[in-house]
Amino acid sequence: MDKILNDLAYAMIRIRKVEEKIDELNEAEKVKCPTHLCVGQEAIAVGVGHNLLQKDYVFSTYRGHGHYLAKGGDLKKMMAEILGSEKGCCKGRGGSMHIVDPDVNFMGTSALVGGCLPAAVGTAWASQMKNEKRVTAVFFGDGAVEEGIFHESMNFASLKKLPIIFVCENNFYAVNSPIEARQPLGADIYKRAEGYRMKGYLVDGNNVLDVNKIAKELIDNARNGDGPSLLEARTFRWCVHVQHYNETLKRKEELINWQKRCPIKNLGFSSLEIVKMSQKINLEIEELLN
Amino acid sequence: MERKISYAAAIGEAQAQAMDRHESVFICGLETDGERGIFGTTVEPCKKFPHRVFDMPLCENGITGFGLGTSLAGMRPIMVHARIDFLMLAMDQIVNHAAKWKFMTGNAFNTPMVIRTIIGRGKGQGAQHAQALHSMFAGVAGLKVVMPASACDAKGLLISAIEDDETVVYIEHRFLHPIEGCVPEDYYKVPIGKARILTQGSDVTIVAISHMVIEAQRAAIELLKDGISAEVIDLRTIKPIDEETILNSVSKTGGLIVADVGQKICGVGSEIVSLVMEKAFNFIDVPPVRIGLPDYPVPTAIPMEEQYYPSWINIVSEARKMMGKNLGKIESGVVATRNFQGPF
Ligand SMILES: Cc1ncc(C[n+]2csc(CCOP(=O)(O)OP(=O)(O)O)c2C)c(N)n1
Ligand SMILES: [Mg+2]
Predict the structure, then answer these.
(1) So what's the ipTM on this one?
(2) Domain end position, chosen among B118, B149, B182
(3) Residue A248 touches chain B, beta carbons under 8 Å
(4) For residue B344, what pLDDT is reported?
(5) Do B300 and A111 touch (CB under 8 A)?
(6) Are B14 and B115 part of one and the same domain?
(7) Which of A76, A80, A18 is nearest to A46 (CA)?
(8) pLDDT value at position A187?
């Protein structure tokens, strides 16, 4: 268990440090494309990613750096892509919003909200047709639930009992639009699964142990042929939606409380241990940037 | 002294004035009520009519259908989408429903709706946030498509679109938002379907669309130094197209260059060249030229992105070739893409 805890913490800190570095490069005007950072939301990527095999598929969104790293994506190639180099994972053609790493079956990300859901279902369908026991995890935000394609994808995945887990990172905002302005009060996202006779679960997206535990169960189920599930992980984005954006007063107030629930700090590691891990990671980042 | 305001502010003013005149006008779209107000374009209407500007869920197809329904029930919706790429999710309701409702019901209903959207460009926004898909809409029977290039036309065309009884797709360009121009304070209309001659000329006609109008004007100034007199036409409306203005001009100059912000293949340029070949063939002295985007998606890395977009330089070089003048290297200017600093 200690080893697992350590791995999870390290993976989260690594994502945090990479995002902080990208933010810094942004400030220095070195990043030449829109970047959507996932600081504050690391536990979901890590908790799910930890239970996926290399052969499993992942699809994500423009806010995908964490998912990419948690799936074992090549950090050097991701950074090169963000910095607009031909050595990047998309050869300079995709930027931060379209990272990919076929070596670990990180299949790509969409800059259109909900855009990857049907293709993710498609990989699960292929896996079923080929009897490969590969699971697909698809990450998306609370906003994507409002798109028609979410419902089409859920319906078909459940109809065919496909090996997929739908991971909704509910950070309560789409850009600066709060969820109350977009979805009926009390219409919990995880409960939408019920209408499709699929299992739906709610998890604290800032608690990596909880995410890890439930993700393991759902991924195992999917692999064993028990069909898809929907996991709603509640969390909060600590940074602006994309560079140049301002925070609203409301978000600033909410952020104070969410920062008290930092997914990394609340794991019980001493500050010294966290500093040590951070230093090691920073070294890795500096080395690959040189 | 005429008052100068930005293209974005002109759009804001048009909407606010239309809302003031017509109770039936309202605005909806994701974060239209936000502080940023869709690059500043919905700030004024939101301040003046906060209850008639609606933030929306992320459901482009639904939004379009909801808007269509309100228009059937007597409202005049303005739907706003921050990128034209997002409209691809709304194609069923736009193409199969809104565009056809009036016709297929034998004019039983009007569908007075405006779909406002924006072509993005610059700073690595990439293949899914910087497409220019206007010709796709122009190809749909039942839709009107306008693309203002100046602040003055942005206001006047939007008011015309709002008062129009059919569905109008109103397409902005992100690079145009900050550009200021003289805009009358009163409520006025610029007719849909009328192009505008910006510079009179006798050697070659340049029909330009949206942001390419800025590039074409710059090109015309350069060409004058070469002794080439270009007539620059701002097309303003893609459909219905102003055949008369184009044909008259081409009959006079005998040369045609179309400069579009969209693709070259199957683009608006293809349509204009066909039109001219069909109806003014005898007046044409040299083969017409289309300037547009290449047939691959826009890459994000800056050097690749800069190479992707044509500019005034391409217009100058094509016009020189057309006039048989080889005047050597064109002194290059700042590339528009590099100037753009966001916000996205
Ligand atoms: C189809 C579509 N509509 C609108 C947008 C503009 N947009 C980009 S990100 C975003 C917010 C989406 O929120 P959510 O799904 O909750 O994801 P989060 O950014 O919070 O992770 C919006 C509206 C888009 N990219 N695609
Ligand atoms: Mg969200």
Answers:
(1) 0.86
(2) B182
(3) yes
(4) 87
(5) no
(6) yes
(7) A18
(8) 95
